Amino acid sequence: MKRHIGNSDGHKSKKGHWALGLLSSMKNKDYLVQSDDRVTMIKDMYPKALHHYLVLPNESISNLKALDKKHLSLLEHMHEFGENYVHKNHPDTNFIFGYHSEASMHHLHLHVISNDMNSSCLKTKKHWNSFNSDFFLHSKGVIENLKRNGKVLLPLSEKCKEYLNTPLKCNQCNFSAKNMPGLKTHLLSHVK
Ligand code: AMP
Ligand code: ZN
After folding, report:
1. pLDDT tens digits, 119-132
2. Measured from the CB, is residue 7 less than 6 Å from ligand 1?
3. CA 80 to chain centre
4. With a 6 A CB cut-off, is 127 part of the ligand 1 pocket?
5. Which ligand is nearest to the Cα of residue 17, counting in written order?
6. Atom of ligand 1 at shortest range from CA of 28
7. Per-state percent for the chain, helix, strand, coil, to nearest 5
8. Whole-prediction pTM
9. 159 within domain boundaries
10. What is residue 15's predicted lDDT score, i.e. its pLDDT?
11. Domain of 94?
């Protein structure tokens, strides 16, 4: 069975129907984790680590470019919402919180992802670097960026390409890997 119809991975062409998938998952009880009147937290459909969630605003906001100062408290709330959930449900696991510089899916989403990066869905160098290079914009930094500039200043697309092509390096020690299979095997050595 082909599982990847409509996912965000590997698509370079104009965004199609698949890019709206997060909106469907927000309404799908199999993916819904918890919500309040401002935000909804879902499970990522193609998790790139043992625990991978997305926190999305309930109001329609397409992406980071659509943000201005009035969204500051929303971004802070999205972060706290994700943080509270993982503190309660995964107290012994390290997570990172952030946004991809160039998102492939429509509707603003904060990645909340455990740092094991241990998942069969994590396959490519691009997957790795989207969470482990400057392509990944840490949530606290995005909030500061918005406070300082009144909008979120993003890296140019040339820079994004460079970031996604960064040589592979472990996120938990200074190991450099030649390729993804090598990195994935190495990551298992960090599993407790
Ligand atoms: P981004 O590159 O920030 O747009 O990442 C989009 C994320 O959404 C990726 O981690 C995908 O695995 C995930 N994803 C793609 N389609 C869906 C879907 N229909 N429901 C939930 N998560 C999805
Ligand atoms: Zn390592």
Report:
1. 999 999 999 999 99
2. yes
3. 16
4. no
5. 1
6. 20
7. 35, 15, 45
8. 0.92
9. no
10. 55
11. 4-123+137-154
Cα of 52 from ligand 2 centre, angstroms: 20
Tokens of 95: 């997570």
Angle at 85 between CA 82 and CA 90, to 5 degrees: 115
Domain count, the chain: 1
Beta bridge partners of 113: 52, 96
Q: What is the pLDDT of residues 38-96, one digit of tens each?
A: 999 999 999 999 999 999 999 999 999 999 999 999 999 999 999 999 999 999 999 99
Could you list the active site residues? Answer: 109
Asked, for residue 83, whether it belongs to a domain, the answer is yes
Residue 131 lies in a domain: no
Count Cβ atoms below 10 Å from residue 46 Cβ, excluding itself. 16
Position 1 scores a pLDDT of 34
| Atom from ligand 1 closest to the CA of residue 111 | 3
Output the domain CATH number for residue 102. 3.30.428.10
Q: Is residue 177 part of a domain?
A: no
In the reported structure, the alpha carbon of residue 28 is separated from the centroid of ligand 1 by a whole-number distance in angstroms of 14
Ligand 2 centroid to residue 112 C-alpha, Å: 20
Structure tokens at 132: 């482990």
Query: How does pLDDT run across 116-175, given as a tens digit for each residue?
Result: 999 999 999 999 999 999 999 999 999 999 999 999 999 999 999 999 999 999 999 999
